[in-house]
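FAQ: What does a ligand-bound record look like?

Like this one, built around magnesium ion:
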Amino acid sequence: MNITHIPAHIAIIMDGNGRWAKQRGLKRTDGHKAGAEAVRAVVTHCRKKGIKHLTLYTFSKENWSRPKDEIKKLFELLTSFLSKEEKSLKKEGIRLKILGELADLPLTVRQLLKHVMWQTRNCTGMTLNLALNYSGREEILRATRALLEKGIAPEAVTETSFAEELWTTGQPDPDLIIRTSGELRISNYLLFQCAYSEFYFTDTYWPDFTPEELDKAIEDLNSRQRRFGKTSDQITNHNETETIR
Ligand code: IPE
Ligand code: IPE
Ligand code: MG
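The answer part, i.e. the structure of the complex:
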């Protein structure tokens, strides 16, 4: 019997496209193209497994510092991916959300994103968040500004009211954050939301990341004990969870 617990929210830092290409004597942009294929397979797999929220780090605010040609290609790949996948997203019940500042994106990209978000707005199978032009620090600053603009009383600034102003509003925090390509850093990703996420690092470059490896990451998560500040005994013996607060 398979008793694997399926996490509600998986977030991925899809890293290593450039090195994957270099290893094969290809252009970096070929790596991004191969990366887009990996995205397709992982999205479908997560939907089939019943994961309700999947967040993919697609383009960070810092990525604007890359060569112009590479940025252009990345946005071309994104638009062709969404145009091709729009129908199947809807069919599979996948709602598209964007985490990041939409206003700074090229007009055509923005229009397509808005169109696909609208087309999939009522889908309830899974939410696919694309972190695009995303910065975790910017997200926190933006939430702070929004609360100040509302004139909220200091004591009304709670974890809940703050989280409501984040781009992930209404969604649970990621249970699992996966980073491919062997880098061991967070790169400004989901800084508020990752407070109690479990991390899974793999040396695999993103274009080689398969649904099987995703299953391995979920299995690994299942072997861990998430304690949220409690003791191990408190987690195993549910009766002993009485605390002084
Ligand atoms: C991840 O792969 C894709 C994006 C950041 C858009 P990279 O392009 O960062 O690949 P490496 O890290 O150079 O290998
Ligand atoms: C993080 O990857 C951003 C995305 C995966 C889109 P980077 O490759 O840009 O991260 P750093 O800058 O090397 O940490
Ligand atoms: Mg990288």
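Follow-up question: can I read anything off the structure? Yes, for example: The chain is about 40% helix and 15% strand.
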